[in-house]
Fold each of these.
Amino acid sequence: MGTCEDKNYRTLVAAAMANDHLVQSKTPMDVNLSKQLVILIHDMGMPLERIIMDPTTGALGYGIEYGYSGMERLRLAALQGDSMTQQPILVTPGEECWKVKEAKVGEGVPESWGDWERRSINWETTTAASLVHAGADLVVLRHPESLRLLRALVHDLARPAQAA
């Protein structure tokens, strides 16, 4: 359907409710704006369990720290009982990572940067792994190898610890 933002959420929420769809609440990297848009969407009658938050984030080296800390704050508020921050969090590291020069440029860069394709996949995977650690529930990736690597990481994190 589209992404709900402050300028278009009314139309999209009405259409989503009429057709029994979920909505994606997308805001700039700001905890208060994320929460405010969820409240506005919910006030229109959309059940909280049908809202997915997309607090936006930057790629590794391009604002990921700010996005990470915003996601942490959303998760901490949710754990403290704030129902307006308890929605699943969607992140799009694939979109963010593949537009940075480190992931796009294969020529004219220092040799120490390594192979372009490997660097790009690692950039996307590292960004995605950081966002999973920050509390992301849904991760949109672009490269199949990044998906494989992230799945392996999540599997390893979920595996029971071995006795020493």
Amino acid sequence: MDTELFASRLASDDRRSQWWAAVQLMNAGPEASVHLPRLLDICDGIDLDADLSTHKHWITFYAARASGRIVQAIGYDGEIDLHKRVFGWIARLASHQNIERAIGGIWGLADLGAPPSATVEMLVDFVLTDARRDPTGKHTARSVAFRMLARIDRELAIHYADSEACREFLADVRRWSGADPERAASPNGIFTEAGWLLTEIGEQ
């Protein structure tokens, strides 16, 4: 990891530089934790209720995912203020009323994983009670939450296989695979991720 390069990009007021740093930090490993305070400061300075530029939107998305991955790689410790701050930021983003903002936070919950147990509790709550939809009405926060819950704990996710969230996610899987079968069957494709679920519960 090029510490000086990341520090320089994050110190810049240029949103494109900040976005680049947030994206790259997703794969920077635990040593990148030194950059988290500045990354979170940047996010705290973005008004989530405003109309965001493309770069601001993706800064929040990738910051949630990167910070979750970094803390997960270290091992979450509820006694460490930085770890608690990361969870707080991810949870705040995931709970935002605008689903386009919230998706990054919901993904970030899965990147952070468990512990803390609150990540799973939030995802289960979203699966069971969330009504947020994107402007098209086709995509829901709860379907994404189910997908992320399954990434963290498959056995727990199976308990909610009869939920609307699961049915919506499976509909997404079928739609994505139908649109691009080759990609769906690739090592990083949706069948690699969700094929076990289709086998476990069958067609719904």
Amino acid sequence: MKVVILCAGYATRMYPLTKNFPKPLLKIADRPVLDYLIDQIIDLPLIESIHIVSNARFYDHFVHWQSDHDKRGTFGKITVRLHSDGSTENTNRLGAIADLQLALKSFDTPGRVLVSGGDNIYRFPLKPLWETFLQNKHHYVVGIAEKKEENLKNTGILEFNESGRVLRLHEKPDQPISNWICPPLYFFQPSVWPQLDNFLATSGNGDAPGYFIDYLCQHEPVEAYQLNSSRLDIGSLEAYLQADQQMRQELV
């Protein structure tokens, strides 16, 4: 089974820090943001390969990152493959969903896939979620109970029923319907492949993943893991500095 990590964004809100350097490789407590995710992925059962999608401008940075980990034997028997989406600046970016399609088309056959953004540090273990996913036939997303009301309008908000079935995902709503945010962490069954193609063909929206999740849950069952946990979303310079400070304090 495979993992796709989406790292092709340009993080314009964090310029000049990210003007010439990819956000997922910025260091938090002296480690690249991406490494925290990799630590969890290599511990998951049945993972055969990790596919990282970069833009063309920052591709070489990921080549050097991979080379460094290869020398240390980080990945073990897991194959790591880098993909460039060909974009060179924010104005010609493909978008996260189009980048996901690019990675999926490189696979030999459809299969289950774990998809994540490369700029989040999840403060909860992925292994129990992955193992539950493997035992079921539905797609899964993660819902995190957000305690700060001011954060609800800047992210995807989940609407689900009492059993946890996702009814809608509202992307950056003016009036949030719940306090359940949906980070860029998705557990997809093989049927996601044609759904992704149909979504891109009909909507033309290759960017925010939340719009695809909203489409998917109206066509196939999508379940939500409801967690009272947290994640560090490196979405701004302020968030980056706060995350670095928090992680350093935890290491003391």
